[in-house]
# Entry
Amino acid sequence: MLAPRTGLDARISLVGVTARGDMTVPDDPAVAGWYRHGPAPGSARGSAVLVGHVDTDTGALGEFLALYDMRRGDRIEVRRAGGEPVTYRVVLRLTVPKEALPPSTFRRSGPPALILITCAPPYLPEQGGYASNLVVTAEPVGRTQWPT
# Structure
C-alpha cells in the first residue's frame, strides 16, 4: 500500500480477531493488517479495513504514523496479488474513542471504501495503550464499480 504524499509504504498481511473479539494488528510496525472477515480492497461493496501501528512499545515508529499527515484528496494505492492496483482518494480523517468505533466501520454492503485505522492520543500508560483511534476513510478513484 502506497500513499506517495505522506510517504506511507506498507506491506499488507491478513488479520482476524482475538478471543475477546478485538481486531488483531500485525506485530511488525511496517506491515498493515487487512481484516480478512470483511471485503478486500477493490471489492464492489463494503469497507476494506486495514489497521497498523503508529508506534511500538520500544518507541519505533510504524508506517501508519503517516495517517496523521493525510488530508482530503490524498491518493492511496493498494497493490493486490494477482490483480490491478486499486487507487483510493481520502475523503475523511477523524479521531474517535476506541470504544466509539462504530460497527458500520466493518460494513459488508454499500458503496466501496477503504478504512485505515491506527492508534491516537492520549496514551494511557496504566492501560498500556492509546485511548482513541485515528480513522482515515477513502473512496475508489476512476471507476464506479469494482470487481468483487
Remarks:
- The radius of gyration is 14 Å.
- The domain at 2-140 is CATH 2.40.260.10 (Sortase; Chain: A;).
- Residues 74 and 114 are 13 Å apart (CA to CA).
